[in-house]
Amino acid sequence: MIPGARLILLGRQGAGKGTQCVRLSRHYVVPHISTGDMLRAAVREGTELGRMAKQIMDAGGLVGDDIMVGIVGDRLNRDDARTRGYILDGFPRTVGQAEALDGITGERPLDVVLDLDVPRELVLERISARRVCRDCGTNYVAKSTERTPWICEVCGGDVMQRDDDTPDAINRRLDLYEEQTSPLIEYYGSGGRLAVVDGVGTPDAVFTRLVAAVELARRPA
Ligand code: ADP
Questions:
Q1: In the chain, at which residue ranges do the beta strands (DSSP E only) sit?
Q2: Average pLDDT along the chain
């Protein structure tokens, strides 16, 4: 395995993108760039961006393309991402963002776009049980007996349900995914840059499939 990679992980909310991105970022030694985490950090810090984003996120909407492209463009220009690469989680989410990303990546094109495929019925169940550490972002699965918040095993922070993991906001996000994000499968597929990976199975099994797809895409023709 050669360290360094330039990857995008697409997929429905609750498909397990976050967990798999953390593992891929360790495997390839690249930064995990999650736009959701960046926006949640801005909300915690109380910046102007955070105040604006909170309302949109809690309603399950999408933050505007110009803002998101600006944030991601700045991040991809930092040294670690320029030299080693990155794994993008939660971006792009619209065709407009994908077109802007093509302009940003320019002479350092993506290795592959991975689409983590999990059916809608299954992700609805998973998101309802999702709990997240508000400090370090580690994901947990609630078994319904726990009282919230619990203490994060990784950093000692509070583990809670995300403010946007309410049934209404989840449904809105999934509808927006079908409308705005699923066209990216065609966008990247027609350019021969897409690998669809079955996201149903244990985290280990799914991770093995993802790495196999990356290695296949990087094999010299
Ligand atoms: P999920 O995949 O569960 O929707 P994320 O953590 O990726 O969660 O994103 C949380 C929220 O942040 C989104 O619902 C949206 O409001 C906002 N967001 C994140 N990334 C983007 C993006 N690329 N474009 C627009 N909004 C975004």
A1: 5-11, 32-34, 85-89, 112-117, 130-133, 139-141, 150-151, 158-160, 194-198
A2: 93
Q: Which long-range contacts (CB under 8 A, 24 or more apart) does 73-82 make?
A: 73/100, 73/104, 75/33, 75/38, 76/33, 76/104, 76/105, 80/30, 80/31, 81/30, 81/31, 81/33, 82/108
Mutate to test the pocket of ligand 1, among 20, 35, 43, 74 (most ligand atoms within 8 A of CB): 35
In 74-100, which positions are buried (b, 16+ CB within 10 angstroms) versus exposed (e)?
ebbeeeebeebbbbbbbbbbbeebbeb
Per-residue pLDDT at 149 exceeds 80: no
In whole angstroms, give the CA distance from residue 50 to residue 63: 11
Query: Residue 132 carries which DSSP code?
Result: E
**Does pTM top 0.85 for this prediction?**
yes
Q: Give the other-Cβ count within 10 Å of 132's Cβ.
A: 22
| Homologous superfamily assigned to 5-118+169-218 | P-loop containing nucleotide triphosphate hydrolases (3.40.50.300)
Residue 146 has pLDDT above 70, yes or no: no
Q: Are 10 and 116 in contact (CB under 8 A)?
A: yes
| Active-site choice (6, 12, 40, 93) | 93
